[in-house]
Fold:
Amino acid sequence: MEIHESLTEILHSKDEFGRMVYDSFLKTFPEIQHHFERVDMKRQAILLTTALMIIERYYSQPTPAVELYLRYLGTKHHNLGVETGDFPKYCECLFQTLSRFHGEKWDPGLERQWREAIERATAVILEGYAEHVYV
Structure:
């Protein structure tokens, strides 16, 4: 399975996938829960899948517009009070959820693609903390 096929499967089950990610994240890191007290988690699942589409696009076919949007995500998270140190925690829960979600289809090649994609995107997102971007 390739990253774009993985994303297609995620998009077909976005509510379930989003629930899996945030259940794992909030149970593993309860100190993060205050960021989600007034959040509509169904909407958050949509935002997650939108971010994954952007991340996959930046990995497969990076463009200045996609890079700008990733920087904007950094600015937005900074303005929400999300610490840069929270990103590795979130990413690890995301990788674990991807593995569980895909089951036997999850293999070292797919894991490598998602790790590269998320690491590249996260580096750009964190740039949005230092240099604020608004769209």
Q: What stands out?
A: The mean pLDDT is 95. Residues 58 and 90 are 19 Å apart (CA to CA).
